Amino acid sequence: MLSAQERAHIAQVWDLIAGQEALFGAELLRRLFTVYPSTKVYFRHLGDHPDEVQLLNHGQRMLQAVGVAVQYVDNLRAVLSPLADLHAQVLRVDPTNFPLVIQCFQVVLASHLQDEFTVEMQASWDKFLTGMAVVLTEKYR
């Protein structure tokens, strides 16, 4: 799926954001809800106007899952299987929302990392996150 260079780009970016998952995740959620307000329907547990603590907590959980995927990039199906079951069978998230999350996450990365987030890194992350989305949607029937 990913070349050695793409894996290196993914690891390099993750090293830059590791330890800041809550902050990056909260900003991802804020952008997602602002640009795509219809996505709030999948986050009802956060309420109509989530506070910063809720965004930080849920954002951290989201990005921790990305971190696990970064660690086990060669085994995404096995690692993401529980999340795929959750999103498909319990939460019933419309799979068309995954590309929206990917887009918002890449904007967050670009806005924070700026020149460090090169075109090559963006392309690698787009491919990686799209691969995650494919795995997360495989259990939909």
UniProtKB/TrEMBL annotation:
A Pfam family: Globin
Keyword Lipoprotein in annotation: no
Domain Globin, chain residue ranges per copy: 1-141
Regions that span the bilayer: none
Entry keyword set: Heme, Iron, Metal-binding, Oxygen transport, Transport
Similarity comment text for this entry: Belongs to the globin family.
Matching PANTHER family: HEMOGLOBIN FAMILY MEMBER, HEMOGLOBIN SUBUNIT MU
Protein known as: Hemoglobin subunit mu
Organism: Muntiacus reevesi
